[in-house]
Sequence to fold (138 residues):
Amino acid sequence: MNWNEYEKEEYGENSEYKKRLYGIFDYINVDNKRLLDVGSGIGKTGIWLAQKYKDVEVHLIDSNETTIETAKDINPCENVTKFIVGNIASIEDHVTENTYDIVTCFDVIEHLNHVTYLRMIDGIWNVLRFGGIAVILC
Fold:
């Protein structure tokens, strides 16, 4: 399966999720920024952002090796450059601190227990550059 087939099958032509995502990022300058998508799954958030904003460098992290492999296989974007298998409760074990201008985490926190959530938030804080932006939605 390629990205276009996946997107059409899973989200149809007019995805509300995609509209919401673009609506948020219309207010954030992503030009020449580095973005980490936490709990990326197969990468829909990161890939959609990479498709719309060509100057952003996107990295994906998810604890599920299968979904990261799927993301690699279906990713159509040259600016999605890193696919990380790693525990989101210890993000800083997998990426360098102060590396990202933007960190996204969509539809993940409602699946976490309190301790894991706090560890993830701490990790996000650690990998953000000074003045960086975290966008966390559930």
Summary: Helices lie at 3-11, 16-25, 44-52, 65-74, 114-127. Residues 3-7+28-137 form a domain with the Rossmann fold fold (CATH 3.40.50.150). The mean pLDDT is 91.
